[in-house]
């Protein structure tokens, strides 16, 4: 299973985390989304993960996203 991790900007509460988790979970291939509010990090597990689609899902949720963190 592949993993990608992103640093998210603008995330400040549990509602933010839930919004991101909901949007990212809809991307094809995603099996699990872990949002670490304290670290402003989102870790995605799945197969054939599309970086552009994952980034777009975070932006669609209303947040900024930095480059993927090497995992």
Shape: globular
The percentage helix is: 25-40%
Q: Which sequence of SSEs, written as H and E, runs from N to C?
A: EHEEHE
Output the radius of gyration. Answer: 10 Å
Number of strands: 4
What is the helix tally?
2
How would you describe this structure to a colleague?
The protein has 71 residues and is an alpha+beta fold. 31% of the residues lie in helices and 38% in strands. It contains 2 helices and 4 strands. It has helices at residues 14-25, 51-60, and strands at 2-9, 30-36, 41-46, 64-69. It has a 4-stranded antiparallel β-sheet with strand order 2-3-1-4, covered by helices on one side. A hairpin with a 4-residue loop joins strand 2 (30-36) and strand 3. The chain is globular, with a radius of gyration of 10 Å. The two termini are 12 Å apart. The model has no long low-confidence stretch (mean pLDDT 93).
Sum this structure up briefly.
With 71 residues, the chain is of the alpha+beta class. Helices cover 31% and strands 38% of the residues.
